[in-house]
Design brief:
This protein has 14 helices and no strands. Helix content is 66%, strand content 0%.
Length: 225
């Protein structure tokens, strides 16, 4: 499974990653385990149109082991569909140690997509750690404070550009600045940013999907339909 993960996250090698999953399944009694199902769901989600299959695999992993972390996966995958109701329900079960759990940023996204920016800001202020895009550049934009968003986004670039260029791109994508978004996402892809595999289902990237550059980038990553 580790080799499968490396192949997908750093080389966007879907066939190779899938072959490793099948090889791992052949060695497991019954052909499945919670860890295998969680990773298989993540791979399917990266393909975009197979998000419902990913959610079903998440559910199977949860049934086998509620502590497997699959609820976090499933919540993120529900968000990809815009289903904040189910995302919130499953994330609340996973994030039992709120408000400090770093994955509370997914619940903040639920707040945003439901038109509750103040609730999202309150939630994010309590976090010790979070995905950089949730902490910085796009956060003030949710409130319509462009000046504060500009300052926060520059802070994000200064602090995280090397390791997390994808999330810089996500902040620009959320703000609707597509040229800058593509600049940073293309840089992330070519630099081996492991978060780039989220591109096809990440709800923060929705504004990119009608742009020809998006199709070209997916082809470069070998993630096109």
């Amino acid at each position: 499974l580790l080799r499968s993960e490396m192949r997908l996250l750093y080389f966007f090698d879907v066939p190779g990653a899938w072959a490793d999953i099948e090889a791992a399944a052949a060695r497991i009694p019954g052909g499945e385990s919670p860890a295998l199902l969680v990773w298989k769901a993540r791979l399917l989600a990266s393909l975009g149109p197979r998000i419902d299959e990913a959610i079903a695999l998440d559910a199977r992993a949860i049934a086998l082991d509620p502590a497997s972390g699959a609820r976090r996966n499933q919540g993120w995958h529900y968000l990809a569909k815009g289903d904040t109701r189910n995302a919130r329900a499953v994330l609340m079960l996973q994030l039992a140690d709120l408000p400090e759990n770093p994955h509370s940023n997914y619940l903040a996204l639920c707040d945003i997509f439901e038109g509750q920016p103040d609730a999202a800001l309150r939630r994010l202020r309590t976090l010790l750690h979070a995905v950089p895009a949730a902490r910085h550049g796009d956060r003030p934009a949710w409130k319509g404070d462009r000046a504060a968003s500009d300052i926060a986004l520059q802070r994000l670039i200064d602090q995280y550009a090397i390791a997390d260029g994808y999330w810089v791109g996500a902040a620009y994508a959320w703000r609707g600045e597509l040229d800058q978004a593509f600049h940073w996402i293309e840089r992330a892809v070519r630099g081996g940013d492991s978060s780039a595999v989220y591109l096809k289902f990440d709800p923060l990237m929705r504004k990119l999907r009608g742009d020809p550059r998006y199709v070209k980038l997916l082809a470069e990553m070998k993630l096109q339909d």
